[in-house]
Amino acid sequence: MAVYKILVDPDPVLRQKAVPVKNINAGILRVLENMRDTMYAADGVGLAGPQIGISKRIIVVDPGDNLIEIINPEIIQSEGEQTGSEGCLSLPGKVGWLKRAQKIVVKGLNPQGENIELEASDSLAKILQHEIDHLNGILFADKAIKMRTESI
Ligand code: NI
């Protein structure tokens, strides 16, 4: 198990557009494994490559009961609207309220290199949109309609 240091805003890597993964090799699989360990160690529900300084399009998500790892994720359908609060390991102590799509379909590759299509709604849809935003250099605070800073 290896835990990465999580980059915190305003680290410039968080603002870069991450590049797609071309080959799912041993190095990428190791990064995914370490991202998973890092997410769990930090008590997070999701983590994107740029947050650990790796500007590649990879995310890990766990809404509480199941680990989802997606390489080159892309939202291909979205509908509806939900408003809810979000936090981010890269913006410690901050909470924001955002509008997100209620339901999305994400396509990408699993760690085995197979094409996957995942339908998600409610909180899983919210987490996936948040993590995919990270791959485009977007932080939730950019989109928040209201922000609060909690004393840590
Ligand atoms: Ni985040």
User: What's the order of the H and E elements?
Assistant: HEEEEEEEHHE
Q: Provide a count of the helices.
A: 3
Which architecture name does CATH use?
Alpha-Beta Complex
| Average predicted local confidence, pLDDT | 96
Counting DSSP E segments of at least 2 residues, the number of strands comes to 8
What can you tell me about this protein's structure?
This protein is an alpha+beta fold and 152 residues long. The chain has one domain (12-149): Peptide Deformylase (Alpha-Beta Complex), CATH 3.90.45. 22% of the residues lie in helices and 32% in strands. The protein is built from three helices and eight strands. It has helices at residues 26-41, 122-135, 140-143, and strands at residues 46-48, 58-61, 68-79, 82-86, 94-100, 103-109, 115-121, 146-149. Strands 1-2-3-6-7 form a five-stranded antiparallel β-sheet. A hairpin with a 5-residue loop joins β6 and β7. The longest helix is centred in the first third of the chain and has 16 residues, at 26-41. The protein is globular, with a radius of gyration of 14 Å. Residues 88-90, 130, 134 line the site of nickel (II) ion.
